[in-house]
Amino acid sequence: MSRRAMVLAAGRGQRMRPLTDQCPKPLLSVAGRPLIEHQIERLAYFGWREIVINLGWLGDQIRTALGDGSRLGVTIRYSEEGWPALETGGGIQRALPLLGSEPFMVVNGDVFCDAPLDGIALAPGDLATLLLVDNPSHNPDGDFGLRAGRVSEQGGQRLTFSGVGVYDPRLFADAPGGAWPLAPRLREAARAGRVGGVHHAGLWLDVGTPERLSELEHRLLRGMSGEEAQ
């Protein structure tokens, strides 16, 4: 498997308004640094050092802030979408020439997760492996079932898709092009028995609202203070 990863960063951040009216959501500050830098740092720590970022809403600001990635110890290339952006599935499909022919990781630009990102891999014949987390209050019914490492629409423990996954490029074969969401294609692959899953019970936040952004800030600052006290 390649060590290429994609951070989805093209969205508008509608629930974050007015914070995202003039600043793309991935550049919102958390504990003194842009959210996307925290994500890239974790990817690099676990060996994912070739990064693709898709650009849509205020994308030039992201390119200016991150450059070629050398400051963060990675190599960054950009997939231009313009506006409106291409949604999750369409955005990944557009970036496939940069991601290559081997499986790659994708991380939503508005999540924070302390999972070990080197432990997510594809089983032979699978099209995807999803990192699943305990259901938060804003998604109490979960997204998928998980039983013995296999993801299904029904059955098993109900969990929430974290926005972190590893995908085989074949998952996007014969996709419609243009803007389309990834979730229906993941459900189709799950029905075919070709999606694995890993349950992470640690820290995960969908940083989709100002309140959750503040919660993450508090958690990270508290963690930093704890490290200094040790």
Automatic annotation (TrEMBL):
It comes from Natronospira proteinivora. One of its GO terms (molecular function) is nucleotidyltransferase activity. Its EC number is 2.7.7.-. InterPro entries: GlmU-like, MurU, NTP_transferase_dom, Nucleotide-diphossugar_trans. Keywords: Nucleotidyltransferase, Transferase. It comes from the Bacteria. It is an enzyme of class 2 (transferase). Residues 5-118 form the Nucleotidyl transferase domain. PANTHER family: N-ACETYLMURAMATE ALPHA-1-PHOSPHATE URIDYLYLTRANSFERASE, NUCLEOTIDYL TRANSFERASE. SUPFAM superfamilies: Nucleotide-diphospho-sugar transferases. This is MurNAc alpha-1-phosphate uridylyltransferase. It holds the Pfam family NTP_transferase.
